[in-house]
Amino acid sequence: MVYAISFENYNKFLDSLIQKTDVFAPVKGKVSSFEKLKSAEEFNADVLTEYTAKNNFLKQGELILTHKEGEVVEPDLSKIKEKILLGLRMCDLASIKKHDIAMNNKYADPYYNERRKKVTLFGYHQKQCGDEYCFCQSVDLEVEYDLFFYKRADHYLVEVGSDKGKTIIKDNQDLFEESDYKMTKEDKEIDNQLKLDSHDIDDIYTNNRGWSALVKDCLACGQCNALCPTCFCFEFRDVPKQDGSVEKKRFLSECQLECFSRVAGDHIFRKAQIDRFKHRIYHQLQYFKDKFGKTLCTGCGRCIRHCPTKIDFVTKINEMKKEAKK
Amino acid sequence: MNDYIPQKVKILEFYRESPDNFSIVIDFKTDHEPGQFIQVSLPGIGEAPISICSYSKDHMKLNVREIGSVTNSLGKLKEGDEIWVRGPYGKGYPMQELKGNNLLIIGGGCGVAPLKGIIDYVDQNREDYQNIDLFFGYRSVHDVLFRRETPEWKNKYNLMMSVDKAEEGDDLACFEMKTGYLMERMKELDINSENTVAFLCGPPIMINKIIGLLKEKGFKSEQIFLSAERLMQCALGMCGHCMIHGKYTCLDGPVFRWDELENFKND
Question: Domains plus CATH for chain B?
């Protein structure tokens, strides 16, 4: 069943959601991230944000525990507020699904899972999604959502992906209309200019010449890690408070920095940038797939688009693959 | 269930092994395998993975080198103080599968610590294994660890110890210690690879050289097990810091069979 909602009603719908819940979406003017909406007008659907929505699940500075008066106090996770994320592109939605897997490997991460449980996901389809750096059609895009919006000339078509989504439609039934439109494959297409020929890259692992040529421009700044929707590696820091207690907090960490693989005694396992660069690419395309059957990368292209030296590893991997086949 | 939450345990015994290394016995009762590790934390300092160097259900012994912020702070504690622990984590040495083999146990410096867990295990299951060789190398006489246990090891097993450098007046005689790199001393020995497995732990440079030597002596990669060192943050297979070519050292290791790692030294 597909629903339709007019632009006018859509704005009413958003405004009523904003009254009840925190709604985060790409915001007009501030193009860089998902911001809390004050009104429906602020939502800018045309922007593929620089910063992704991952901070809503893997919160920077997440309080893990507090050491207080010789005891450990667990934070009250029930206080985490419900929120709605709006305007999620396919790549961003897919990254959430990957995190669901990564954060529930052998052990479950209670902080991630609580935040995840309390987020309602609204997908947003854009055929001309990004720019020349998008390659999402070359990787695994598996998504979960509550509602998914497709823009038409004068209305949105809405697909329902969960019971939660169904309830939202039901609660706002005066704004949505049932539609007998059948979604086609074409409706869901996303245009890519960039194509990764294969993400099976085991055979080019030892191509030192190829990787060196790619890495020579890398500044090891870690921007790719910070903006990647799927990079989830993290570290803990103990933060002492004035009252004598200590808070253990979690922050995302960057595998492109030397300190990532440092151990006591200052031994750094991935000292050379080529090893760090390859680690990122292999984690994204190979390791995660070997373990869980899907690439970690969602092909959003942010790591190329916002790279200070625009390192296009996709084209280079295609070249190396061709070379390997010869 | 929140696996990040540590529990408080008491230090039952604290004693120095060397100027920058100490052993502690903690009141932590848990089932574990030799080669597994726990996460030890001190509020305000941080958390660090420490290998278990005992094999007992009643208590746990840790051997620690003071080299980072957590370990330096641990070194300032005393008997009766409390620390925070969680675990045990990881995959240890596959002792059950290796029954009937000769064991070649090779350690360098504080790398001897996880190997001591094997020795304790073998003590309790001596009939399951054939010859036991212990080859330990230290920087100097002052860095020799486990002096309390060494006399017993010397009686029970074939023990060879060497120090990289000796100075005048150093007492090498007590454990019949040799001088020079452990690898050089091992070259002189007649080591038979048949029906033998080697357990290694130590600094990367030493490990790489000794593996080369073992290969020369006829060992296959499948006969070599080593304990990898990484700085785990979560130890739960998520944080990514301990990843070696897609494998989590905290879940798939810290003990790896050499063929799992040999092509991926810098990953």
Answer: 7-89 (2.40.30.10), 102-261 (3.40.50.80)
